[in-house]
Write the structure tokens for this entry.
Amino acid sequence: MEEILRYLDPYNKILLSGCGACVTVCHAGGEKEVELLASGLRMARQKIGKRMEVLELTPARQCEPEFALELGETIEKVEAVVSIACGVGVQTLVHHFPKIPVFPGVNTAFLGETFTHGVWEERCQACGNCVLEKTGGICPVARCAKQLLNGPCGGPSNGKCEINQETDCAWQLIYDRLKGLGQLYKLEEFIPAKRWGVESRDRGPRRIVREDLKV
Amino acid sequence: MKAGSHLEKVLEKGMFAVTGEFNPPKGNDVSVVKRKAGLLKDCVDAVNVTDNQTAIVRMSSIAASSLLIQMGLEPVMQMTTRDRNRIAIQSDLMGATALGIRNMLCLTGDHQSFGNQVDSKNVHDLDSIQLIDCVRTMRDQGTLLGGAEKIEGEIKLFIGAVENPFGDPIEFRAIRLGKKVAAGADFIQTQCIYDMNRFKEWMKMVQDRGLDEKCHILAGVSPLNSERIILRKEKTLPKVPIPDVLIDRITKSKDPDEEGIRICIEQIKELKEMKGIHGIHLMGMDLDKFAQIVDRAGLSPRPKVE
């Protein structure tokens, strides 16, 4: 909140945009959160005698141009936009509205799974070459603190990661899963060095083109 | 001979090896290196030079190893995959071997959150087993990783790896050791052993896979004292089990340091008789006591080999 107020300091009329997709599901940037944050911002500014008008909108999916463009009319009326969609949503607005400053309102953390109500855990780092078929469907790239591909480090105890006692050791999970499936032989296979520089984002942003879907 | 290092010769001749451990200074003070080298000289066959162990910044392992060579000691240069990608790894191996380093130990490395640069990004372009594969490729095929490009000169390295016989999942530990041996590990140094029964269970799994005949296993030992019991149990890593009977011996002793040394010597003697154990790796201790332990364990003088 303090960070958002700091970069909004020069502006008196803004749009706060949420997103109706993933960030709604994880209670970080949906309509409800837009409403809460908008009142918070208004009150904070009123308190210091610098009233700010905050408009609110929550398109269905901010990362798709059709929905993002719905914001166009409102954006013309404001001096800046704060988006509490993920980092992709923020950049979709930046792409389509070159003349207006767009700020992130949340810190996008990870691609996760809803573990249970109110708990999310990272599951995928979009590394570009899935190894799940070798590791019993549990990803060591996303779930091991050292991204080890050939087994656990020396650290885990009682099935927990040495970095964080609340985190399961990915390799313990892999071991248990493969044991349950009667596929422990899969652990014997050497997984060679990964091609991070070709398959992952280390080569820069990736792009997927589907000619059949182009219009 | 794969690398022709002194350590390799000692092990290949079937002699019981002794390696020690040396932490480079937290700066560039060569006198520290000299003092520690003096304490280890003539009591070890080779000495491990740690690579920013527990993610605490120290003089580089390559530079400290090179200084040790000048001082007449043979280093086992440790290298972690935490701080280098495969470009830096292969470049450093060219440099290290050019400086006369003939042994290396391949490690993943302690997580940066344990050290004094917690904000750093870990690399892990390779894991420790892929690192072993990389070194073996450079040595035996004479090419860079990936196989295409020839290396000028020869990368002569005796390749070491580590294993924690007590890490979870226990059943995976022997499988993992097998992967390390298959990838090219010539020798293995284990984590500190205090629980001899659990260690024997692990050795049984290792022997069932015939791994003790495919590599030289050096058993890790470290003398206990009151402070180390606390550290081992709570703070340092990885955690290794310490049987209560040993803790009792230390805490009830009038001279805990001496009792720790006595336990250590008993363990060395027991390990020396164990099938498949080709040496000990003596670590985590006050180096002033090093010569005394080696001597009292009946392991001095260290052999001279041609």
